[in-house]
Here is the input.
Amino acid sequence: MGPERTRAKHSAEKSERKQGSFEIALPIRLAISSVLVIISALFKMPVLFRTILLILAVIVSGYDVFLAAVDSIAEKRYLATPVVVLFAAVLSFVIGFTFEGALMVLFHQLSGLLIDYTRRRALRSARSLAVNLDEDGVTRLEEILADDRAGEMQIHQTLQDSAEFVLRFVLVFSLIYAFLFPFITGISFRVSIHRALMILLIASPLSVAVSFPVVAVTALCHGAQNGILFNNAAVMEKLTGVNVALFDKPGVFSEETPHVIGLQSDLLDKKTFLNFLAHAVYYSDQPFAKAIADYYNQEYRLDLINHFNEIPGCGVSLEIGQAPVVLATKSYYDSQGVDVPERGMAEGIAYYMTVAGRYVGRVVISSDINRDAEALVREMNEAGVSRCILLTEDGNEQSQVIADALHFSEVFGECDMDRKLRLIRDVSQTGQNSTVFIYANGIEGHSAANLDMRISRKGKYADILVLPENYLNIPKAVQISKRAKELITENAVFVFIIKALLMFLSIIGYSNLWFVVFIDTVAALATMLNAIRITTPSVFQKQSGNTDR
Here is the structure.
């Protein structure tokens, strides 16, 4: 272990010891502070002595609030929560509300303790959702959650910015209320300042922001529970805006590599015919070529191959030993006006070989479509993805048959990977499209789509990994993302309503300093506990028909 790693380890251990001692010390401080507050309330004593006891209570429970406020002021964050709390505490003592001021600081610190405890328990519960993951999946999830920014979403920043804007407005309103309201109503400045402090405390964004990362991390873990590993919450948020999904057929709707079902030749023996087939497809990248190459286990004579040409989505043409050879689908031969026999067809795609214009035989390649995936397109549409496009290497005719079977309204056939990537780029750059490319293999890099989703256990460049055994949960990835955004919005609306009610009560004089802090804390705890509802269906989303996934 090098010196830098040793120092880092010692620093981390020191930080952990410091945090542990703080967690132990704070409850003790709060207990001492509570005793001092209770003594000041129960026993008769001179006002000065009671004030000193309450000041001691504030110092014991809240000296770290003072330190945090100093740091915030140094960073020019004048409306940070510690600054607001310190300002309210000091001013409450100045205007004679000493008991409320001490209780307010005590409740603020207690709320921090409860919120931190609830947050940690909620995050621990969120991690327990991913019990079905294997060791690799757990490792990947822990790597994701180890990033401090894993739970950050743009909506977090938007709502926090809104809360800070509201706080600035409320600060101005509080000043006007404190100094002008007495002239209008006849109440004392002491009372108007007291109410203005309550209004300012209510506007603090603590309870608005505290639940955001909890909801995001719970959603990430719920995704992992369903075999969906988002790189971070920002990716999840971006998925909520996707309206176009482009699917690569191999590995998603069919085998990644097809296989040879059968060979038939009336002119050549099986070994010789297979030799011709293998040499014909040696330079081809089409899936059927890979199936033939896997089936062939003899040596190649590459010097016999000349003038090789791909027929995209249909087959190949070349010369073998100066004899012109074509291996292609029936649709290609039909387009050339050449008849080939179709008797005794096995299920699959047949490729017919002609040598010097004479029919020699055919090879049948598997074209198994995963019938379990037939509902994917419909479920993606129900999740809010309006366009689903199929990209396939098959010929146009066969591609249309597959698209119809899988309920795609758009399909592009005869696509090698380069053409697929060009199509993804074109669709992504058209209009207001937000795209996700869903694939199993074939690219080493990120496509031009807004998001790449890979069906695999590993993917360096993919934004989202879907474990192969959970590929039917692809629509659920969209549902979870939208559910997370919905819960964050719910929490924000709930907190703003609570704050509005508290503000009204404060303006008319039916509240006090410690009460607004207490209710704000309850609201914060409620929003964090609400995060677990990520596992329940939304009333606004139509759910997948297969609930057993």
In short: Confidence is low (pLDDT under 50) at residues 1-22, 545-549. The two ends are 45 Å apart (CA to CA). The first strand starts at residue 228 and ends at 230. The chain has three domains: 3-233+478-535, 243-254+372-449, 260-365.
